[in-house]
Design brief:
Elements (H helix, E strand, L loop, with lengths): L4 E6 L11 E3 L5 E3 H11 L4 E6 L4 H7 L7 E5 L6 H6 L2 H4 L4 E5 L2 E5 L5 H9 L6 E8 L7 E7 L6 E9 L3 H7 L9 E11 L1 H10 L9 H10 L3 E4 L2 E5 L5 H11 L4 H14 L2
Parallel strand pairs: 1-4, 1-6, 4-5, 8-12
Antiparallel strand pairs: 2-3, 6-11, 7-13, 8-11, 9-10, 10-12
């Protein structure tokens, strides 16, 4: 089943600004983070996208999406009631369809001939259930990500059956509940920032919502893993969490080093290292 709709969350306090930042692409074009994400989304064949924004930010985002404005719907999250509530805000937009969910503070660099998103959609086309992207991640990064527990699917190098999901677990908890045979010691499968989700996830969020507390997404994903065939695919590529310290810098360096100006960029980096010792 092809995925035709995408949702990008951009209503959090940091996400109101990070997607508006600009970077230089590997081919030398200057674009906003939002435009980078939408370029990848629409190049994959997805037809429309909704961006969840904070009240009063639509004008800024309208400028940031470049030439994709006619394919984008802006949905205000009226109150900051959590990440799960931001996703729930897209209920009417996604309807009864499976949909792509992306975070506005992540950028991607593929090591494959297919983009990171295309790798996800290829797996999603083979199943009716939810699929999350993951990457082996050192335990020092657990404070930034949700992580999964499960088992490798026989005969599939990078595909896993999800049985458990925890949000930003401590290394101690992860060691007890999220060990997956075959991963390097001290590494866990953490979310890569892209998911294909089913309408049942929206129903889980709706059933869990209470106005007096913030609503996360992880609990609804974990509940879905108990009732649906939930898969995770390990991506050949890098994710850049631009909310991390120096995250935007790492993203820019990653793009620069993957482009035609790699040698020039490497030379500049070496000069800077030598000058600042």
């Amino acid at each position: 089943m092809n995925i035709k709709k995408a949702v990008i969350t951009a209503a959090g306090p940091q996400q109101q600004h990070l997607p508006l930042q600009t970077l230089v692409s590997p081919t030398g074009e200057t674009k906003t983070v939002a435009a980078f994400l939408l370029d990848e989304i629409f190049a994959s064949g997805i037809e429309s996208a909704a961006i969840i924004i904070a009240p009063g930010t639509e004008r800024d985002f309208s400028s940031a999406v470049a030439d994709h404005l006619d394919q984008v719907t802006f949905i205000e999250q009226a109150e900051p009631l959590g990440y799960g509530h931001a996703v729930l805000s897209a209920k009417d937009f996604v309807g009864d369809d499976r949909f792509l969910l992306m975070m506005s503070d992540h950028l991607y660099l593929s090591f494959s001939k297919d983009s990171c998103l295309q790798q996800l959609l290829s797996v999603a086309a083979s199943t009716d259930g939810p699929v999350s992207t993951v990457q082996s991640t050192h335990e020092s990064k657990l404070p930034y990500y949700g992580a999964i527990g499960g088992s490798r699917i026989s005969g599939q190098k990078s595909l896993y059956q999800v049985s458990n999901i925890l949000e930003k677990p401590t290394p101690t908890v992860a060691e007890q509940e999220l060990i997956i045979p075959g991963l390097r010691s001290g590494n866990y499968l953490c979310f890569f920032g892209m998911h294909v989700l089913t309408p049942s996830v929206i129903k889980q969020l709706e059933d869990s919502f209470a106005p007096e507390r913030k609503l996360g997404l992880t609990g609804s994903l974990a509940a879905t893993a108990k009732s649906e065939n939930y898969l995770a695919c390990e991506i050949e590529g890098l994710r850049f969490n631009i909310e991390e310290p120096h995250g935007l810098l790492r993203a820019q360096l990653g793009m620069a080093l993957s482009g035609d100006s790699r040698d020039e960029v490497m030379g500049s980096i070496i000069e800077l290292i030598a000058a600042t010792r």
